[in-house]
Design goal:
The N and C termini lie far apart (76 Å). This protein has 136 residues and is mostly helical. It is elongated, with a radius of gyration of 19 Å. Strand 1 and strand 2 form a beta hairpin. It has five helices and three strands. The protein has a domain of 95 residues: GMP Synthetase, Chain A, domain 3, CATH 3.30.300. Helix content is 49%, strand content 10%. A three-stranded mixed beta sheet has the order 1-2-3, with helices on one face.
Amino acid sequence: MLKKIRKSIRPLWRSAVVAFVWANRRDAMRWARFARRAAVSASRPDAEDLKLEAKVRASLSADPVLRQDPSIRDLRVHDGVVVLETPPHWHNKALAVTRLSQVKGVESVHTAADATEEHFLDIDLIEVPLVATVAN
């Protein structure tokens, strides 16, 4: 009896998975690129950056507007600095900066337009302003 029910539900289950992946295809492709980069030892960031990038990607995936945004091509994290690869005049920048700044461990959020165009996602080119502390 249970086998017959499972057999009849299987095509529906596959269709539901395919529909979900298609509806979230941009987010799924960003996660796939992240997984590929994390698996290859030559391009793998250090463990702390990898964990923080996974948290940032999860936060991005949790927001329905940002998850479906075709302007976000990819993101990278290095020492708490998040760089989003987006066009220069991206309309969801404020939302993304607010959302990603709330992730524990993120120091600053930038778009690739903050770096030079030929070095997309090159985090070393972005100058992070240091917060001056005033001694009392």
